[in-house]
Design a protein that fits this description.
GO terms for molecular function: serine-type endopeptidase activity. The protein has 12 helices and 28 strands. It is an alpha+beta fold. The protein folds into 3 domains: about 280 residues, Thrombin, subunit H (Beta Barrel), CATH 2.40.10; about 90 residues, Pdz3 Domain; about 120 residues, Roll (Pdz3 Domain), CATH 2.30.42. The strands form 5 sheets. Strands 9-10-11-14-13-12 form a 6-stranded antiparallel beta barrel. Strand 27 and strand 28 form a beta hairpin.
């Protein structure tokens, strides 16, 4: 089952849609089935009006759509009273050590080659918000046969993953099509496994092309459809009437978690190149400028005499990033990237992400009412984890979810969740850029650290008099303290506007 995002108060179940495909049989690789002949297809789908039926098209395509089940190992607390005031009263020290449990997830996918390569969503095999270790992937074919599969490559930024079925058998498959030719009102068919029910077919139309949902990111650019899409459809294909995959079903807007006719699919033109790179084992490099941006509102556009639905406003510029080196400043409005207009459908993040790092590009912008052009050398986009850590850190806000940094031993022993202190976070916390330490992102209210007053936004400078610059540094000192039989650690803490101080924190 898929995770849920919350956008505009609506639950957003992850469900990406893919690329255009033509189905081939499980005969020799490359053999085209007779049913895919254009003359046959013309009889299946009339040229004018609504289709008489989707049955023949479904019969051709469904054999290449699979169910994907995964098994993961998740670390959890062994103390049944964890998270309650009784955690330290019952169970003893052994119960404080983490244990593991199994979890499963279900999703859909489609085969793109006769030798068994499968495309799906990254979140199907790597559920977000969990500290899970993937242990097993099982592919179930429409006829019920099951195969083990291995993960070939995954990309969190685009939410795509490529698997390989462990079999020498030749499989029916589909291929990516040209999603740029899709138009609002075009018929589409979604095939997948909603709620684990097995092969399910739904139909609808393209509601919008290149829909920006406002969730941000370089790939917030989807095909919107009213074809019924639900949990379990994640990673399944969205087909056009020629049997091409034009989207990979990925997300829905819904107040209830079920389909209300607003579904989103990753366009094939975005997915296909990424899939090929993952399949080839290549590193995916994306461009990056190092700016925090927001859309240009109507009021801002009117005040500057700009067209509406054009440009993005620069809120902040990353120090020593590509944008700063090019002379871009906070308050600028970027209107063109490398000759392409910045719009709601073609955002700055999307345009830059698709430019090779190291490329020199012209950037047109407005500054204080004047048009300017600067030249930037595009940088390399950090990983999703690095980007998360670079986001502005609000010490008064509670984190939406546990940090992704692997600080499990620190959290278990001291009740602290910590993340690296980046330049951006240092500025937000009011300390110098060269400060070295770890930032506390959350404190267990039942731990001694909370009783001693530690809080989100505090910076740990040292532990047992040893400087702490990374998680590995902290974990090494922690392991040494445990080896020596110590029951507490001496932390040096820096809080905004206050001098650094030492605090002994009892371990548990």
């Amino acid at each position: 089952m898929k995770p849920v995002r919350y956008v505009y108060g609506l639950s957003t179940a992850l469900l990406l849609g893919g690329a255009t495909v033509s189905l081939v049989t499980g005969q020799p690789a490359g053999a085209q089935v007779a049913q895919n002949d254009q003359s046959q297809m013309a009889r299946v789908v009339p040229q004018q009006g609504a289709p008489e039926s989707f049955a023949d098209l479904t019969a051709q395509l469904q054999p290449a759509v699979v169910n994907i089940a995964t098994r993961q190992r998740i670390e959890v607390s062994a103390n049944p009273f964890a998270g309650t005031p009784f955690a330290d009263m019952f169970g003893g020290r052994n119960s404080r050590q983490p244990t593991t449990r199994e979890a499963q997830s279900l999703g859909s996918g489609f085969i793109i080659s006769a030798d068994g390569y499968v495309v799906t969503n990254n979140h199907v095999i790597n559920p977000p918000g969990t500290r899970a270790t993937l242990e097993e992937i099982t592919i179930t074919m429409p006829d019920g046969s099951e195969y083990a599969a291995e993960l070939i490559g995954a990309d969190a930024a685009s939410d795509l993953a490529v698997l390989k079925i462990e079999s020498s058998k030749a499989f029916p498959f589909v291929t990516f099509g040209d999603s740029s030719k899709a138009r609002p009102g075009d018929w589409v068919v979604a095939i997948g496994n909603p709620f684990g029910l097995g092969g399910t077919v739904t139909s609808g139309i393209v509601s919008a092309v290149y829909r920006n949902t406002g969730s941000g990111g370089a790939y917030d650019r989807y095909i919107q459809t009213d074809a019924s899409i639900n949990r379990g459809n994640s990673g399944g294909p969205l087909f056009d009437m020629q049997g091409n995959v034009i989207g990979i079903n990925n997300a829905i807007f819904s107040p209830s978690g079920g389909s209300v006719g607003i579904g989103f699919a990753i366009p094939a033109e975005i997915a296909a190149p990424i899939v090929e790179q993952l399949r080839a084992g290549e590193e995916i490099e994306r461009g990056f400028l190092g700016v925090s941006i927001q859309p240009v509102s109507d009021d801002l556009a009117d005040s500057l005499g700009l067209p509406t639905n054009r440009g993005e406003f620069v809120q902040s510029v990353q120090k020593d990033g590509a944008a700063e080196r090019a002379g871009i400043k906070a308050g600028d409005i970027v209107t063109k990237i490398n000759g392409k207009e910045v719009t709601n459908e073609q955002t700055l993040s999307f345009l830059v992400a698709n430019i090779k790092p190291g490329t020199r590009i012209p950037i047109e912008l407005y500054r204080e009412g004047e048009r300017r052009t600067v030249t930037a050398t595009v940088g390399k986009r950090p990983t999703e984890e690095e980007l998360r850590q670079q986001q502005m850190f609000d010490p008064d806000a509670e984190p939406e979810q546990a940090p992704q940094a692997d600080s499990g031993a620190i959290e278990e022993s001291l009740g602290l969740q910590v993340i690296p202190l980046t330049t951006e976070i240092a500025r937000q916390l009011g300390v110098s850029d060269d400060t070295s330490g770890l930032v506390i992102s959350a404190v267990d209210p039942n731990a001694d650290a909370a009783r001693k007053g530690l809080q989100r936004g505090d910076i740990i400078l040292s532990a047992n008099y040893k400087p702490i610059g990374t998680l590995a540094d902290f974990e090494a000192v922690l392991a040494e303290a445990k080896k020596e039989g110590r029951e507490a650690m001496l932390l040096r803490i820096q809080r905004r506007g206050q001098p650094a101080r030492y605090l002994p924190i009892r371990m548990r």
